[in-house]
Amino acid sequence: TMGEPESMATLSSPPSGGEEAQQALVVGASRGIGLGFVQHLLASDRTETLYATYRRPETAQALLALAQADPRLVPLVVDVADEAAIAAAVDQIQTRTARLHRVVYC
User: Fold this and answer.
1) CA distance 17 to 88
2) What radius of gyration do the chain's Cα atoms show?
3) What whole-number distance in Å separates Cα of residue 42 and Cα of residue 65?
4) One digit per residue, pLDDT tens: the chain, 106 residues?
5) What are phi and psi of 9, to 5 degrees?
6) What angle (nearest 5°) sits at the alpha carbon of residue 24, between those of residues 20 and 29?
7) Integer Cα distance of 46 and 81 in angstroms
8) 49: CB partners within 8 A, 6+ apart
9) Rounded to an integer, what distance in angstroms lies between the CA atom of residue 31 and that of residue 61?
10) Confidence at residue 21, expressed as pLDDT on a 0 to 100 scale
11) CA–CA separation, 44 vs 70, rounded Å?
12) What is the full DSSP assignment across 29-70?
């Protein structure tokens, strides 16, 4: 139904009309469910670029290790309470990507 979050199974299903490379953003990706979504999306051959935000480097070691191993993962330091940090992240994404296909907020 409308308004319910997508399951990981739904995120894996191909879009109608064929296999399109996907650009995605996971907000809150340093641990827990957010990190799980990052791992799941990176496991998909369709994920071309995955932006992943985190607030504190000391809690993002696993995410940063994934980024070292996979060039599709672009980690971004963002505090969602800081409008300037959000604007800077949006600018970084817009310089590399015309469109996001998925946004996951954890």
Assistant:
1) 34
2) 13
3) 13
4) 344 444 444 444 444 445 678 999 999 999 999 999 999 999 999 999 999 999 999 999 999 999 999 999 999 999 999 999 999 999 999 999 989 999 999 9
5) -65, -40
6) 150
7) 31
8) 23, 24, 72, 74, 96, 97
9) 9
10) 87
11) 12
12) -SSHHHHHHHHHHHHSTTEEEEEEEES-GGG-HHHHHHHHH-
Encoding tokens for residue 49? 């670029």
Measuring CA to CA, which residue among 66, 68, 1 is closest to residue 30?
66
Q: Counting Cβ atoms within 10 Å, is residue 58 exposed (0-12), middle (13-18) or buried (19+)?
A: exposed
3-class DSSP assignment, residue 28: coil
Summary count for the chain: helices (H), strands (E)? 4, 4
Q: d(Cα 77, Cα 74) in Å, to the nearest integer?
A: 10
